[in-house]
Amino acid sequence: MSLNRLFWLISILLMLLFLVLTGRIVSSEWSVYERSTKSMPAIKNLQLALLVEEKLAAERGPGHSLLMQEADAAASELAGLEQARSASDQALAALRHAVQAVPSLAAQAAATELALAAARKEIDLLLSLPKRQRHMAAVDAALETMAGVDSGFAPVIATLSDIAVRSDAQLSDGLEAALLASSLRNIAGRIGAVFTAPVIVQRPLTSQEIHAFLKLSGQVEQLYSGIELQLRPYRDRPALQGALDEVRDRYLGASLGFLDELFANGRSSGNYDLSGREMVIRYMPGMAAIPQLRDLVLAEMLQQAKDKNRRAAFFLLAAAGLGLIALAIFILLAQVIRQRVLRPILDATNLFVSLTGERFDTAIPIPRHDDEIGAMMRAIHVLKAHSLAKVGLEKQREEMIAQLQTLSDTDFLTGLLNRRAFFAQGEQQFGIAQRYRRQLTLILMDVDHFKAVNDRHGHHAGDQVLRVVADLCRRHHRKVDLLARYGGEEFLLMLPEIDMSQGFAVAEKLRGAIDACHILLDDGAMLNVTASFGVVAFESDEDLESLIRRADQALYQAKHSGRNTVVATPKGKQDETIAFA
C-alpha cells in the first residue's frame, strides 16, 4: 500500500473514530435534552390532573354539608358549592385543553365531565327537597356517585404519572411524593367528611364512622411516612423540607389532633360544642398544607426538568460546536501534514525513482520552507546534478565502447562487417536454422581479375573498386541479411529464411548490377568489373565452416566456368550445379 493511501486510510479511520465519539456524546446529551423536553409538559399535565382531583374532592365537602341541612340553607354555603363547582369546571377545562393531543386522555377527561354532571344532578335534586323528604339511602347514593367521579378520574392521573416517569426516570421519587401528597389530601378530605353529618345533627358516631376514622387515620400515617421516604433525596432542598414539616405540624399535629378530640366526643356523648361551619374553619387550614407540599414538589420537579433541559441544550450545543471546531482543526492538521510532510516525501520518492531510472527531465520543486523537507529537496538538487554528471560520463564511455566495438567489427575499407564479426553473428543465424530447421542461403562472391586491376591501375583504384562493389551489395540485401568482406576481393552474404532458388536469384541480380556498373576512377579512367558467385543452401551442415566450404567450392566452379557466373550447388551433389553467365 502506498504511503499516500495509508495516510488517507489512517486519517479516515481517525476521523470516523472521532465522529463516533462525538456522536455518542451528542447522542447522550440529545437523549437528556429530549427526555427533559418531554418531561416538562408531562409534569404540567400531571399537575393539572392532580388539581382536578383536588377540586373534585373539595366539591364534595359543601355538597355533603348542604345535604345534611334544610333546603333554605345559608346563601353563603350555596355560594361556596357554586364556587367549588366552578373551580372543578375550570380545572377540567384546562386539563382537557392540555391533553387534547392525546385522544385517550381527552376522552377520559370528557367522560369525567359527563359523570360529574350526572352526580351534580342527583345532588341538586336532593337539595331541592325538604330535609325530611331526603332519604339517607338516596343521600348516601348521591355521595357515592360523587365519590365515583373521583375514582373514575384516577386512571387519568395514573396515565399522566406513567408518561412523566417514562419521560425522565430520575424524577420518579419526586413524582411519587407528589402523588402520595395528593392521596393524603383526598384521605384528609374523607376523614373530615366522617364528622360532617354527626357534627351538623349533633349525634354520636356510628360504628361504621368509627371504623372509617380509625382506618383513614392509619392511612394518613402511612402516606406521610411514604412522602418522607420519597423526599429523602431532596433533603438539601430547604423549601421542600419546610413544606413537609408544615404538613406534619399543621395537619398531622393540629388538624388531625382536632379530629381526635371530635372522635372522643363522638364515641361518648355526641356533644361537639361547635357547628359544621366551625368544624370546617378549624380543620381546613391544616389540610391546606398538603396541596401546598404537593404543588411545591411538582414545581421542584418541573424546575429540575428545566435545569436539565437547559444544561443538556448547553452541552449539546457545546459538544456540537467543539466537535465541529475539533473536526476543522483535524482536517486542517491533516491538510498541513499532507502538504508539508507527506506530499514532499512522495515527491522526493518520485524524484529518487526518476533519478535511479535516469529520467532527469522530472522537475524538482523549489523548497518554500526552511525546514527538514526543504533541506531534503536541496540535497536532491545536488544529487541530480551529480547524477547528471555521472550519466554524462557513462554515456561518453558507452559511446566510446560502441565506437570501438564498431571499429572491431567493421572492415575499415568497405564499412562492411569483417570476417570475425561475420562469424560471431553468422553462428547465431546458423544455430537458429540448424535448431529449428529453418531455411538459410549463403552467397560467396569474388571480384573477377581483381589482381589485374591492382597491377594496371594501382592499389588505390583497387580499393575504389571494392568500395563500389560493397555499396552495390548493400543496395541488394535486406536488413536481416549479413553482409561481410570475407577477405581481399571476396564478400559473404548470408540470407536467413531464403531457399536455394531465391538465393540464386539474389546472386544473379547482384551479378547483373556489378556487370552493368561503370566505375569512374580518380584518374578519370572508366572501369568495368565482374564478379563470380557461389550459392549454397543449408541442409544438414554440421557448422558454419562446412557451409562456407561448400560455397567456396561453388565459387570455384564459377571461376572455372568463365567467371561472371553464379553457381548454386546442393550438398552432396557437387556434380549437379546451376550456373548462369
- Alpha-carbon distance between the two ends: 74 Å
Question: How many distinct domains?
Answer: 3
Please tally the helical runs, counting DSSP H or I stretches of 4 or more residues: 16
Number of strands: 8
Integer average pLDDT? 84
Strand content: 5-15%
CATH superfamily membership of the largest domain: Reverse transcriptase/Diguanylate cyclase domain
CATH class of the largest domain: Alpha Beta
Supply the helix-strand structural class.
alpha+beta
Strand arrangement across the biggest beta sheet: 2-3-1-6-7-8
Q: Can you tell me the CATH architecture of the largest domain?
A: 2-Layer Sandwich
- Model regions low in confidence, pLDDT < 50 over at least 5 residues: none
Order of helices and strands: HHHHHHHHHHHHEHHEEHEEEHEE
Helix amount: over 70%
* Morphology call: rod-shaped
CATH fold-level topology of the largest domain = Alpha-Beta Plaits
How big is the Rg? Answer: 63 Å
Domain GGDEF: 438-571
Enzyme class: transferase
Keywords: Membrane, Nucleotidyltransferase, Transferase, Transmembrane, Transmembrane helix
Transmembrane segments: 312-334
Describe the structure.
The strands form 2 sheets. This protein has a 6-stranded mixed β-sheet with strand order 2-3-1-6-7-8, with helices on both faces. α1 runs parallel beside α5, α5 (172-194) runs antiparallel to α7 (207-230) and α8 (238-267) runs antiparallel to α9 (276-287). It is α+β, with helices and mostly antiparallel strands and 581 residues long. 32% of the residues are buried. It starts with a helix and ends with a strand. A hairpin with a 2-residue loop joins β2 and β3 (490-496). The protein contains 16 helices and 8 strands. The protein folds into 3 domains: 44-164, Up-down Bundle (Four Helix Bundle (Hemerythrin (Met), subunit A)); 171-303, Four Helix Bundle (Hemerythrin (Met), subunit A), CATH 1.20.120; 411-580, Alpha-Beta Plaits (2-Layer Sandwich). The protein has helices at 3-67, 75-98, 103-127, 136-167, 172-194, 196-201, 207-230, 238-267, 276-287, 289-356, 372-409, 419-436, 450-457, 459-475, 500-516, 544-560, and strands spanning 440-447, 482-487, 490-496, 518-520, 526-528, 531-537, 566-568, 578-580. Residues 438-571 form the GGDEF domain. One of its GO terms (molecular function) is diguanylate cyclase activity. InterPro entries: Diguanylate_Cyclase (IPR050469), GGDEF_dom (IPR000160), Nucleotide_cyclase (IPR029787), Rev_trsase/Diguanyl_cyclase (IPR043128).
